[in-house]
Amino acid sequence: MKHRLREWLRRYLPAELLSALATLAAAGLVMRASRSGVRAALAGTWAGNVAYFGLLLAQDVRLARRARRQRGYAYTWRTFGQNLRALAVEFGAAEVLDSLVIRPALMYYLPRWLGHFAAGILLAKLLADVTFYIPAILSYELSKKRLRNFDDEP
Predict the structure, then answer these.
(1) 52, 55, 57: which is closest to 26 by C-alpha?
(2) Per the CB 3.0–4.6 Å rule, which of 9, 28, 87, 120 could disulfide with 114?
(3) Arithmetic mean of pLDDT over the chain
């Protein structure tokens, strides 16, 4: 279990940190520009998503390139499609509920309830992450052998 926890932290923590920065920056900028809690919540949600999934995709592409190169194969558009499919399986169900309902609602209400915008946004992000990671990690573990094997011939 220690090995898996380390693997999950290595996989998710850098993306989480980048996502937190993007979330706070986008939500803060949009709130300052528009004075709209709804717009700020949506901007924070989507900026965090772009940063999070962008970094994970870049990591996955790098790992797949390395695995294929070691076997003497090129990284192709088909391999890139396999990277995208693996991410979709890993995060699909968790992401839909998270991005469309849970995270925006928490990012809208928690700053109001706490009376502090940045603290509310950060707490909302952390609470939403709990409901996000349980199905995401389960899907990741179930898909590792089948969707993340890049050693096969082209």
Answers:
(1) 52
(2) 120
(3) 90
